[in-house]
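Collaborator request, handled under Task 6.
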Amino acid sequence: MRLLGFIVFFLCVGLKRKYYKLLIPNKSMAPERTPRAKLKGELRRIWMRSAERSTAIKRDKYTCQECGAKKSVKKGHEVKIHVHHKEGIDNWDEIIDLIMEKLLCDPDKLEVLCVDCHNKK
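Structure tokens returned to the collaborator:
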């Protein structure tokens, strides 16, 4: 059994880097995310860095408006806060459909223009 382990170790060390990567699963081998999933992730990233979100957090002094808990990063007493849309966002599919239809449309519906011509339209 030890001999088998030694042989596997020796082969892994001896293999070129590109072949060794094939033996070890990594993040790049994960299935590709769909365009819709990528778009939703990007929209979330934009929201997380938005001035509106930041303003709401500062306005409420990093404090939960329901229970009064204050954001904390103290070890053992961590409290995370989220910014909640009072009106909700229950139409993610509609938002993503609109962006894909109007902004990320088929290349046949796009044209390249100089800045001046683009500003005229």
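The cover message to the collaborator said: "The chain has two domains: 1-30, 34-105. Residues 34-105 form one domain. Please let us know whether this matches your experimental observations."
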